[in-house]
Automatic annotation (TrEMBL):
Keywords: ATP-binding, Cell membrane, Coiled coil, Kinase, Membrane, Nucleotide-binding, Phosphoprotein, Transferase, Transmembrane, Transmembrane helix, Two-component regulatory system
GO molecular function list: kinase activity
Species this chain originates from: Paenibacillus alginolyticus
Pfam families named among the record's database cross-references: HAMP (PF00672), HATPase_c (PF02518), His_kinase (PF06580)
Domain HAMP: 308-361
Protein name: Histidine kinase
Record-annotated membrane-spanning stretches: 12-33, 287-306
Subcellular location: Cell membrane
Coiled-coil segments: 354-381
Chief localization: membrane
InterPro entries referenced in this protein's UniProt entry, alphabetically: Bact_2-comp_sensor_kinase, HAMP_dom, HATPase_C_sf, HATPase_dom, Sig_transdc_His_kin_internal
CDD domains linked: HAMP
Length: 590
């Protein structure tokens, strides 16, 4: 079992959170859209309603101004006294004065009929004389200021410095107040009307625009004629208020709708707080907003519960599986309060790991017993092969009746077979293996007295090292079998030394022809090159035994030397323990 790190998008944590978001996000987006759409609809309805109201009042103001226009035009067309004012006063001063009195009386009589107006005036340009009729509500100070302002308009008009159009109602500003003014020219006489702009707003004061709502008259330069401090404080933009509404304001938003006058260069505008508009939302829309905010608040809590109830228990199981993958079968999932399903899963997991641990122990014991049996079988395969060769040597010595060599041969065989009877053990001391190999060399010298030479070099401090039996003698035997003959002399050299990485290096080389290319390739790939006639079975036995005893800690290489002889190098771990302990420690790793 292998557990690899999964990509983030394949993890259960990602899929649960992603699935939750896939459900929640569209709902939240729909609710946000629905809420915004509802707000827009309400704003449109409120804007349209107030737009209609402003249009109604603007129409009423325009009708009042139109009545004043009709009066001024009729007065100019019907009253013959204006002709007198059009002439120089010096020509008939008495008539001029009498006509002026008549005009004053007539205007004074007609002024109460037009409640929105504060003054009628007549200005004679030839005489630079101004006649004014004021309402009782206008103070003397205001009257003087207005008269001076009107004279200034006509003076500037005559000089050409004032480009104000006299064809429609226009705004006249005195101090911080605005006044609506209308002038009609008849010959060289001007007749006009004047009114305080705030009087036009009196009917609009009855309209409910909220606590902070305002109705404003605005000049053609988008300057508020009243409530200037309110407009500046809230930074309300009054520019370009047309048929549609707009939201403006710094801290608090205001909905602004307006209507331009058809009679003059001014507009009527309603400024409504957006908070008042949203208070008029239906209860369902406010519930949507509440649900939306509640969902956003509850989402982290839901994710926390999801992590605590599902993700943490699963992560605990994953961590245990990773540790088991590393070979630690003692890992158990500790009990932690959770849902019943995870409790049952954890208990089953712990029982399963306990059973696997017991099963692995049983398998290892069976594998160890099998390796022991296989090792004994492999060692027994070597004995008959050498036994046949030994009998053949004794037979040859008996033919020549060399009883001295026969006796020595028998003693060598006794030592040889005494060692072989001990070789059912997995390990022997290197000193015993070296002595056995020298004894074998002596037996082969008797067979090839002139064609076999050898040398064996081993440091004294390595004599107590334990090695598998017959690991040296097998390769010596293989060399003698395939390289030594009666026609050619062969030398076998054996070198044993310790490496820096705490291993024992055994090198066996000869001066023969070396390994054939096909055999060398098979040996390097650790292929079984034994055949029915027993050729190379000893080499394969050594390879197999080293693999069984050391797994990947031992190494054996085959090559041909520069002189075309065979070279075998064996690296095995350095051990100086008792043979039984060594075998138990090495085989136990399986």
């Amino acid at each position: 079992m292998q557990i690899h790190a999964l990509p983030l998008f394949k993890t259960l944590r990602f899929k649960l959170i992603f699935g939750l978001l896939i459900i929640v996000i569209p709902i939240v987006i729909f609710m946000i859209y629905n809420n915004l759409y509802a707000i827009k609809v309400v704003r449109n309805q409120v804007a349209q309603s107030n737009k209609n109201l402003i249009s109604l009042y603007m129409g009423q103001i325009d009708r009042n101004l139109d009545e004043v226009d009709k009066y001024l035009f009729n007065f100019a067309a019907q009253d013959m006294g204006l002709l007198v004012l059009d002439a120089q006063r010096d020509q008939n001063a008495d008539r001029y004065s009498f006509t002026k009195i008549q005009l004053n009386n007539k205007l004074l009589k007609d002024l109460p009929n037009y409640k929105s107006m504060d003054m009628f005036f007549v200005y004679s340009e030839p005489n630079q004389d101004l006649l004014t009729v004021m309402s009782d509500q206008v103070s003397y100070t205001r009257q003087v200021a207005v008269e001076n302002s009107i004279k200034t308009i006509f003076q500037d008009q005559r000089d050409g410095s004032n480009q104000t159009s006299l064809r429609e109602w226009f705004m006249l500003k005195l101090g911080d107040q605005y006044f609506l003014t209308r002038v009609i020219k008849y010959g060289n006489v001007y007749i006009g009307a004047w009114a305080d702009a705030s009087k036009l707003m009196v009917p609009l004061n009855l309209v409910d625009l909220g606590n902070n709502g305002r109705a404003l008259l605005v000049t053609d330069l988008f300057e508020a004629m009243s409530n200037q401090a309110f407009v500046q404080e809230n930074q309300i933009n009054l520019n370009d208020v047309g048929t549609d509404y707009k939201l403006t304001g710094k801290n608090e938003k205001f909905l602004v709708v307006g209507e331009k006058s058809a009679k003059g260069r001014f507009s009527l505008i309603a400024v409504i707080p957006d908070s008042i508009i949203l208070e008029n939302l239906p209860l369902l829309r406010r519930m949507v907003s509440f649900i939306l905010m509640g969902s956003l608040i509850l989402l982290p809590f839901v994710l926390f519960l999801l992590r605590k109830i599902i993700l943490i228990p699963i992560n605990r199981i994953m961590m245990a599986m990773r540790r088991i993958e590393d070979g630690n079968l003692d890992v158990r999932i500790t009990y932690s309060p959770s849902v019943i399903e995870f409790d049952k899963m954890n208990q089953s997991f712990n029982r399963m790991i306990s059973q696997i641990q017991e099963l692995k122990i049983n398998v290892l014991e069976e594998q160890l017993n099998h390796q022991k049996a296989e090792l004994k079988h492999l060692q027994l395969q070597i004995n008959p092969h050498f036994f046949m060769n030994s009998l053949n040597i004794i037979y040859n010595l008996a033919q020549v009746k060399d009883f001295t060599l026969i006796q020595e041969m028998v003693l060598c065989l006794v030592e040889y077979f005494r060692f072989m009877f001990r070789s059912n053990m997995a390990f022997v001391a290197l000193s015993d293996e070296v002595q056995h190999t020298l004894n074998y060399f002596r037996i082969q010298e008797m067979r090839f007295p002139k064609n076999l030479t050898y040398d064996l070099s081993v440091p004294d401090n390595l004599m107590d090292v334990v090695v598998p039996p017959l690991v040296i003698q097998t390769f010596v035997e293989n060399t003698i079998k395939h390289a030594v003959s009666m026609d050619k002399q062969i030398h076998i050299g054996i070198t044993i030394e310790a490496t820096q990485d705490k291993k024992v290096k055994i090198r066996v080389e000869d001066t023969g022809k070396g390994f054939p290319e096909n055999v060398l390739a098979q040996l390097q790939m650790e292929m079984d090159i034994g055949n029915g006639e027993g050729h190379h079975i000893g080499i394969w036995n050594v390879q197999r035994r080293l693999r069984l005893l050391y797994q990947d800690q031992a190494q054996i290489t085959f090559s041909n030397g520069a002189g075309h002889g065979a070279v075998i190098e064996i690296l095995i771990p350095f051990h100086e323990k008792e043979r039984g302990e060594v075998y138990a420690s090495i085989a136990g790793r399986g």
